Amino acid sequence: RKSHNLPGPRGYPLLGNVLDMPRSHVSENFAKLRPKYGDVVYLSVFAQGIVVLNSQKAAMEILGTKGDTSAGRPILTMASELSGYDRFLALHQNGERHRAGRTYLHGAIGPQHAREYASAQEEQVVRFLKKLLDDPENFEEHCKWIVGACILLITYGHNVDDYNDPYIEASSGVMQRFSVAAAPGRWLVDLIPALKHVPTWFPGAHFKKFAALCRVKARQAFEAPFLSVKQQMKDGVARRSLVASYLEASSSLTQEEEEFIMFTMGDLYGAGLHTMSSGISSFFLAMVMNPTAQKKAQAEIDAVCDMQSRLPTFADKSSMPYVEALLWEVLRWGAITPLGLPHRFTQDETYEGLQIKEGMHAFANISAISFDPESYPEPEVFRPERFIGPNPQPDPRKIVFGYGRRLCPGNALAEMTMLIIIARTLATFDIQPRKGEKYSISRTDGVIAHNNPFQVDINVRSGLARDLILGN
Ligand code: HEM
């Protein structure tokens, strides 16, 4: 290991800071190290150096401006190499393949292109409103359904009818197996990579069987919708989708190109589903906790849509500044990915005299930065007004979607999808507290944080709103 001068709690030989690592509320506990050690804190776990960035300035400079040196991802022998998940863009190491993937996504769902799918999303959201009308108790399930349906519509032109849609089930299975394969500390082979050479029949080599299963299942899950679009194109019945546009643009694909498009599409589903559904669930929670914000947003939507004579569309965005600010506050307050995804330094780096070494991993403490009281006074209060007026507080989109060469490529799509869902839900429903239920911010740990279960009352606002939902 190279020596460095990074501040952080003293660790034990070999173990490093294993015993100091928080078991829960990881982001909050990392933030507590800031007063003593500063914005950049060093910890080590079994000789793996981890750099936690507790301020926007440090995260922006180290991962953003100087991002070339920190654009790698941790090398996960089990998840990436053996199980084949390195074919997901989120796990690519930086280099040509990663660049090509990002360039493709920028041209397909970047800020200039995501809006091309707005009207398809708007139609889907009406189906979500119907589900809320028929079965308001299960709003959390409907939140997952709508974001999954929007992603599958864009990627494959696939219309999801029900909860047990085969593509959703297959993709969810891939994500579940991925979370097992990538679980930190679960696999000895991640600590001792040479074990990957052990033959499958060797006692204790069950990890190789599991890895092989991951590969087969991922291929099956992503190949089926891809082949289906191919067939639909042959039959002249394919709907507009990312896969169809990709196939249209190239007369014949190499096996490598087919694999690229299959896995990139699969990654979009995995990366978009839980992030956006967590955000939409936070929106419902925020609305019961802050009825004034809800009423203000509804008044703005009613004015734009001529008092419930139509549903809002994405084209109304610039006329709905309060609703847009509400979305930004959902992104900040919802703290969807508390620590983002880890970056890996591929070269030595310095920041304000601190020496960061090649091979170290870096986490931007996104949740702590979004709740930094210096940037966001009373950070736990949901207040869209923060972003309106002559002195707006910092734009949270520069935090919550990560940094530099790893910045979330689905950010424009996520904003558009969430804006349509939020605006149409507020146009038609009142989200009210359930009698006896107490509301607070209470979220799970993990790469993506989810709200602990809560109940709300969801009531259609008027006969006009009901007619808009039912298309009468
Ligand atoms: C509110 C919703 C979302 C949030 C908060 C979010 C957040 C993030 C964050 C923090 C990262 C890691 C950035 C870094 O390493 O610095 C990321 C990466 C990524 N996101 Fe998102 N995301 C969201 C929605 C989406 C959607 C809708 C898609 C695609 C449909 C998507 C696709 C991806 C991909 C492919 C990566 C990996 C990028 C890379 O490694 O180069 N995300 N996202």
UniProtKB/TrEMBL annotation:
Pathway terms, separated by semicolons: Secondary metabolite biosynthesis
Superkingdom of origin: Eukaryota
Molecular function in Gene Ontology: heme binding; iron ion binding; monooxygenase activity; oxidoreductase activity, acting on paired donors, with incorporation or reduction of molecular oxygen
Cofactors: heme
Pfam families: p450
Keywords for this protein: Heme, Iron, Metal-binding, Monooxygenase, Oxidoreductase, Signal
Record-listed heme binding positions: C408
Keyword Lipoprotein: no
Assigned protein family: Belongs to the cytochrome P450 family.
Protein name: Cytochrome P450
Species per Swiss-Prot/TrEMBL record: Mycena maculata
Lineage: Eukaryota, Fungi, Dikarya, Basidiomycota, Agaricomycotina
